[in-house]
Design a protein that fits this description.
Elements: E1 4-6, H1 8-14, H2 16-35, E2 39-40, E3 43-44, E4 46-48, H3 50-56, H4 62-74, E5 78-81, E6 92-96, H5 98-103, E7 137-139, H6 175-178, H7 185-193, H8 200-209, H9 214-230, H10 243-248, H11 269-304
Antiparallel strand pairs: 1-7, 2-3, 4-6, 5-6
Helix pairs in contact: 1-2, 3-4, 7-9
């Protein structure tokens, strides 16, 4: 995992949490601009949910990220949009506003200084403004190998070979790669073992998003076999989810239901009739006792005043 930096001047103005997110948003914007991706309304966007962003910022809770994004929108740091292809998708899209870009002296691509003109002479190319001269503060997070990944300087351009980032739609397999699902041995192993074979291309898209390994696929196959032999819901094909749903919802993390739910027992006609008789007898008994109580009270009053 790369170092997470923040500008101390932005941290003083907006708080450390938002300053870290702003610095990372600059990196995402620069990456998308280099790849000409996620471009809408004359600007570049990144997208995700607070829960998804928390995977990139493990030291923030989803609520902290949600609050920081909300604060950033209120302060004019971020613009919020909705460019989801499906109407029910509520994933948030965010873009750095012109105000914050001017403050950090970057244009909408974050590749050049604010107001940069490609026709300018080489002598007039980017020089960082005095307000950004403060040394960046780092939040160092080592990657899986324990090594520290160097951050990308602000004035360094990113080419299309750079790694994908959160909010980068290139993480999703394109149409041509989806057509080759039959040639993927890992997906073939998963799909052949899955009992409800539906929409393999869509399933392959979700499969590739998980970046599967041989061990991961073996775990999926083992889970599928256990559910086929033990899970009561998987005994009927109509209750087995589509492979796309299985992968997208991380179905393998759920419990295996080995017992049927106890069915509610309803009384028979004879039992209902017997219950009604018992209720009637109790009501008659209660009425008799009430009548006796009234008569006893009356007799007591008559004896008292004789």
């Amino acid at each position: 995992m790369a170092d997470h930096n923040f500008n101390p001047l932005l941290a003083k103005k907006y708080g450390i949490n938002l300053a870290i997110i702003i610095n990372t948003a600059i990196f995402w914007t620069r990456s998308n601009a280099a790849k000409e991706d996620n471009f809408f309304n004359e600007r570049y966007w990144f997208y995700g949910t607070p829960e998804y962003f928390s995977k990139y910022f493990p030291y923030f809770t989803p609520d902290q990220i949600k609050y920081a994004l909300k604060k950033g929108k209120q302060c004019g740091v971020f613009l919020k949009g909705n460019f989801n292809k499906k109407g029910y998708d509520r994933t948030g899209w965010y873009s750095l506003s012109d105000e914050i870009l001017k403050e950090v002296n970057l244009d909408r691509t974050c590749l050049y200084p604010y107001g940069y003109n490609n026709k300018q002479n080489e002598q007039n190319k980017y020089q960082e403004s005095p307000q950004n001269q403060a040394a960046p503060h780092r939040v160092i997070l080592p990657n899986a190998s324990g090594k520290i990944t160097p951050t990308i300087p602000v004035n360094k351009s990113i080419n299309k070979k750079d790694i994908n980032t959160i909010g980068d739609s290139s993480n999703t397999p394109n149409e041509k790669s989806v057509d080759n699902y039959k040639d993927d041995p890992l997906f073939t192993k998963f799909y052949l073992n899955y009992p409800n074979k539906q929409k393999p291309k869509e399933a392959y898209k979700e499969f590739k998003k998980l970046k599967p390994t041989e061990e991961f696929v073996s775990m999926l196959v083992d889970d599928i076999n256990k559910r086929r032999s033990k899970d009561k819901r998987w005994q009927s094909r109509q209750y087995i989810p589509h492979p796309t749903t299985y992968l997208k919802t991380e179905y393998w993390m759920g419990d295996i239901i080995t017992e049927d739910k106890p069915k509610q027992k309803y009384p028979t006609k004879e039992e209902r009739a017997e219950n009604e008789k018992q209720i009637k007898r109790r009501e008659e008994e209660a009425a008799r006792l009430k009548k006796e109580e009234i008569e006893a009270s009356k007799n007591f009053k008559d004896t008292l005043f004789q």
